[in-house]
Amino acid sequence: MRFLETFFNGQVILNYLPDLVHAMGVTLGLAAATIVTGILCGAALACLRVAGLKVVNFFIIVFADIMRALPPLVLIMILFFGMSSLGLNLSGWTVIYIVLSLVLAAFSEEIFWGGLTSIPAGQWEAGRATGLSRAQTLFHITFPQAARRGIPPLVNRVLATTKLTALGSVIGVKEILSVSSSAQSFSGSATPLTMAAIAYLIIFIPAVILSHWIERRYHFAT
Amino acid sequence: MDTFIQTFFNIDIMMQAFPLLMKGAVMTLKLCAVVILCGLTGGLMLALAALSPRRFLRWSAIGFIDLFRALPPLVLLVFVYSGLPFAGIRLAPFWAVVIAFFLNNSAYFAEVFRAGINAVPKGQTEAARATGLSGPQTLIHVVLPQAIRNVLPDLLSNTVEVVKLTSLASVVSLSELLYNANMARSVTYNSSPLVLAAGMYLVLLWPLVRVVSRYQRGLSSSH
Amino acid sequence: ETPGEIAPIKEGGYSVALDGTFAPHAFPSLDGTIQGFNVDLAAAIGKKLGVPVKVTAAQFSGLIPALQAGTYDFLVAPTTVTEERAQNLLFTEGFMDTNFRFVVPKGSDEAKYTSLEDFKGKTIAVNKGSVYERFLEGKADEMGWKVVSFGTNTDAIQAVTSGRADANMAGATVSAWAVKKNPQIELSYEYPTGLVWGLPFRKDDAATRNLVDSVLECLKTDGTMAALSEKWFSVTPAKGSTLITPTPGYGTPGFDGYDPTEHEITCKF
Amino acid sequence: MLEIAGLEKSFGEVQVLKSIDLKVQEGELVFVIGPSGSGKSTMLRCCNRLEEPTSGSIFIDGQRITDIPHRDLDRMRLKVGMVFQGFNLYPQMSVLKNVMLAQVKALKRSKAEAEARALEMLDQVGLKHKAGAMPAELSGGQQQRVAIARALALDPQVMLFDEPTSALDPELVGSVLKVMKGLREKGMTMLVVSHEMQFAREAADRVVFMDQGYVAEQGTPEEIFGAPKSERLKTFLSRVSHGDVEAEAD
Amino acid sequence: MLEIAGLEKSFGEVQVLKSIDLKVQEGELVFVIGPSGSGKSTMLRCCNRLEEPTSGSIFIDGQRITDIPHRDLDRMRLKVGMVFQGFNLYPQMSVLKNVMLAQVKALKRSKAEAEARALEMLDQVGLKHKAGAMPAELSGGQQQRVAIARALALDPQVMLFDEPTSALDPELVGSVLKVMKGLREKGMTMLVVSHEMQFAREAADRVVFMDQGYVAEQGTPEEIFGAPKSERLKTFLSRVSHGDVEAEAD
Ligand SMILES: Nc1ncnc2c1ncn2[C@@H]1O[C@H](COP(=O)(O)OP(=O)(O)OP(=O)(O)O)[C@@H](O)[C@H]1O
Ligand SMILES: Nc1ncnc2c1ncn2[C@@H]1O[C@H](COP(=O)(O)OP(=O)(O)OP(=O)(O)O)[C@@H](O)[C@H]1O
Ligand SMILES: [Mg+2]
Ligand SMILES: [Mg+2]
């Protein structure tokens, strides 16, 4: 029964539960802010790309490439320490929020753009032929379709990116993983790790179920 | 500005750290090779199970996928490495990483494959079955090639993520690229090794990322 | 288990682990091998026992679960003995004192501080999950300082050099090393704690703990510890300091898991 | 009502339309037939500038639309209703929303007004009861009728049809043609690309035969079907009407 | 050659086929017509067990295929060639590979043998020169002929066609019908669901009219088209031939 004592020590659970509940709040807040910002920025960039301005598109592509290829930890370090040696002090929370939003924006831009390019030309033409402007056609007709096509990969990305909030532990953001590894070290017990796992499940299992629902809800026959 | 360059772009320190980082990069590559292969295979199997007409199989697969997409890979890794010994299974660090990432990645890859297979018209399967191809033959020769083409960008995106994820392996003492960069950083009290590591990741991943975008452009022009 | 029981020496030797980013106790050389006081300490233990001791470096989050799982026989990371930890782990006697020391930017006013009170209102960077974090957090209301914690002490020091924090607090040896290696910072006030660093074992493995405890006693008396201290800290230990003074019984007195059984100090195992 | 004068259109090197002249009077139903690749769709698409003509002019209701600046295109397009072979209903919106969208966004009608008009048009194509359905739940013929209602709801002055029935099962064709006949009786001006010869015979005022980017022959249905002059038209007609005689040119 | 006896098929509660009896003699070309939803496709799909019949028997060449165990289905299906409305060529393979795949994987022919046979069949449908092309590069008519070649290459004893021309542009229909005519002359047994009445008149040995899951009427083309007995058939024929008269039943 050393297993139980190691991973489910009641005393340790009681000691660190309040901290961990608080950390869940931080993780949730961070994740929610990241999702909203990341997806909105990604959508905006994809739409901007539709305009077909060469220079703008070049920068969007470079942005998306770099954000997707770089490990976010490196971005976090540079933004957190590098910016403050340039005199700009961002809080740990803000840095994580900015970096993860940028990463999610890069991925979702690519997903939305992929979706947009797969919309049949006829949909654009139908919109334009009924006197809708380009922007109106994009906004009301093609983008909603692209977004729906993008839901499964987007859900994957959103889950993966929000779990990266765990990187907050590196720069002192008191999210779940940070608090649980502190607790692990303070207590000399592995139990806080179990608590972290459960905390993540409590947050993400409903998220996954919600995503299934969204997928079904917005699936339409074409 | 000067401190900024000193802390992040110190060429001398980068040169010193380079051999250590190269070692890490080799470990990262080794891990990736195994982990990606396992993830892809596992993901495919899971996707097939999740699309199976058999209820039990289908629901088990979906449950598996959802569970492991919800668990952070770090936690998973520690559990595999330190939890399994309680069940009498002691794994070498390398294999612990492989198993933990297999569980995590195959769940993600499964979702990608599932979307791809769903997008292949039913008529393709029917045409193949009508010409006497067996179920597995139909899958291998007709459905999968199309499914993979449908979701190639997502597959590659996911692969990029997996490469980045291997940096967790240091938890179980596998010194991969990022951990070695951190070690170098702790010796030199300077962040340049980290920037160098970032550069190496870029070299490793940029081609992959480019291929994704190129492929998407290809798709759009064929529409 | 019977008090005072000493385990036989393990045939194939011992597997031990530490966090490899903790200079001067354990840190990499740029060719990838791990070095430092605690690495040498592990080797010295092995030498006395006449069996190999395999040292693995890993991220801290993985150490304790792996110890509990039996992957490692014990940890050689310098671990401050605290009451809470002693409830989940067994400790050897302290192998050295651990005082806390502030590190501040070179030439700053903080360099001249001489008490905790002087740091009132400052931002102090610290390694997450360390006893220093605990300590600072515990006194935060009283002292009115702000604590920011980081994944590693290296990051915490970088927070000082990049101006994100006014000071860093760590173990005295660690701080001294950092200052030696890093021209941007200097040492400040050292706070005597009365706490010690010990080596953690599984709760149910008292016999091995007792064995290693006796080895430590031997190393303290035969001059090995003093030599290591000179090598890594450039400090000759003062008479009566824990580094060269064996503690009676097994474990750290006053903490859970202490076994007061009296025994001879010997170097024969 | 609709006048095309000297219209030319090239895609890169390839000239697809080589000087087209064509007039459609108010209330007239003009049929365009011709082999695949002869430029029928391209000509139609030039009429609301979905394609930019290379040269030549197009007038709608006396207004020259070929030199309207881009920012005014949307307004011009409202005057021209267009129905495509592929229906192109918006799959994510209900039938009613499909018909309302451009009314609200482009014509700036109020929602209530747009809805009333949409229901009226859906009624006209016999699909009022399907207003709440999603496009995927409709048969092809029903989808095409919704597409027609969508165009009509904007009160266009001309309707352009590009093979409106060619993606439909034979049984479903009738309902679409019936709607078109109804429009004709109401005096709508229509330019129709289609291979429904039977329908052309019955309903068209004039039939235009296009070949290789030219208007090769035109006249009343009787003239075109009864007494084709050019060899090319004769071959074409025989191919289309008895689908069985000749192999497609590969 | 093909015999259907008492075939019934339900999807859940809905009975789609209600006792079908039908015989196709060796070398005969039988046409199946009938309104949408009458069960034509379902009947065809039962003949190679793409759908599982609910009850009744189907015999091919004297062998009862309705009780063949699942593991032997693949072998049975080789005897029945099937051509779909949607062609369903494999887009990722060249035309040649499309025709070779099942030969190699299901019939276990050698590659060389399969290739020779594939080229022969492509020649028969007039597309030998397109062997290296990808399906997307072909017109619909060409794609459908490749689909026919793909089925023929397996030397089936019966060919089933489900609306083989209904997704094609009118000009492209001819080439496919020509191939089918060629097959008939070679003595292939064929069961064809199609609305190409003209072709049925010329080529069919027998025409079967299905309605609401029954075979409602059958006979020679002259009988069916010239002297339809049931009201339902009369209405159906008038609808299909003059696409303009009646609205589709919604
Ligand atoms: N966007 C384009 N770019 C290049 N070539 C084009 C484009 N659109 C059409 N074409 C070419 O212009 C020619 C005329 O095409 P168009 O679609 O107008 O013919 P059509 O008479 O409508 O034929 P169909 O009956 O097959 O629809 C064809 O050769 C076609 O390949
Ligand atoms: N897989 C299925 N599940 C449930 N109902 C089905 C299924 N397949 C066909 N049906 C129903 O069975 C009936 C007959 O369909 P079937 O496709 O055989 O008709 P059909 O005569 O081929 O019509 P069409 O000319 O439109 O192809 C229809 O009402 C259809 O909705
Ligand atoms: Mg056209
Ligand atoms: Mg059918």
UniProtKB/TrEMBL annotation, chain A:
Residues 24-214 form the ABC transmembrane type-1 domain. It is a multi-pass membrane protein. PROSITE patterns: ABC_TM1. The keyword DNA-binding does not apply. The chain crosses the membrane at residues 20-48, 55-80, 86-107, 193-214. GO terms for cellular component: ATP-binding cassette (ABC) transporter complex. One of its GO terms (biological process) is amino acid transport. Its main location: membrane. It holds the Pfam family BPD_transp_1. One of its GO terms (molecular function) is transmembrane transporter activity. It is found in: Cell inner membrane; Cell membrane. Keywords: Amino-acid transport, Cell membrane, Membrane, Transmembrane, Transmembrane helix, Transport. InterPro entries: AA_ABC_transptr_permease_3TM, ArtM/GltK/GlnP/TcyL/YhdX-like, MetI-like, MetI-like_sf. Belongs to the binding-protein-dependent transport system permease family. HisMQ subfamily. NCBIfam families: HEQRo_perm_3TM. PANTHER family: L-CYSTINE TRANSPORT SYSTEM PERMEASE PROTEIN TCYL (PTHR30614:SF0), MEMBRANE COMPONENT OF AMINO ACID ABC TRANSPORTER (PTHR30614). This is ABC transporter permease subunit. It comes from Pseudooceanicola albus.
Automatic annotation (TrEMBL), chain B:
It is found in: Cell inner membrane; Cell membrane. GO terms for biological process: amino acid transport. Keywords: Amino-acid transport, Cell membrane, Membrane, Transmembrane, Transmembrane helix, Transport. GO terms for molecular function: transmembrane transporter activity. GO terms for cellular component: ATP-binding cassette (ABC) transporter complex. Residues 25-213 form the ABC transmembrane type-1 domain. The chain crosses the membrane at residues 24-49, 61-81, 87-104, 193-212. It comes from the Bacteria. It is a multi-pass membrane protein. PROSITE patterns: ABC_TM1. InterPro entries: AA_ABC_transptr_permease_3TM (IPR010065), ArtM/GltK/GlnP/TcyL/YhdX-like (IPR043429), MetI-like (IPR000515), MetI-like_sf (IPR035906). Belongs to the binding-protein-dependent transport system permease family. HisMQ subfamily. This is ABC transporter permease subunit. It comes from Pseudooceanicola albus.
TrEMBL record, chains D, E:
Residues 97-124 form a coiled coil. Pfam families: ABC_tran (PF00005). GO terms for cellular component: plasma membrane. It is a peripheral membrane protein. It is found in: Cell membrane. Keywords: Amino-acid transport, ATP-binding, Cell membrane, Coiled coil, Membrane, Nucleotide-binding, Transport. Residues 2-237 form the ABC transporter domain. InterPro entries: AAA+_ATPase, ABC_ATPase_HisP-typ, ABC_transporter-like_ATP-bd, ABC_transporter-like_CS, MetN_ABC_transporter-like, P-loop_NTPase. GO terms for molecular function: ABC-type amino acid transporter activity; ATP binding; ATP hydrolysis activity. PANTHER family: AMINO ACID IMPORT ATP-BINDING PROTEIN (PTHR43166), GLUTAMATE_ASPARTATE IMPORT ATP-BINDING PROTEIN GLTL (PTHR43166:SF9). Belongs to the ABC transporter superfamily. This is ATP-binding cassette domain-containing protein.
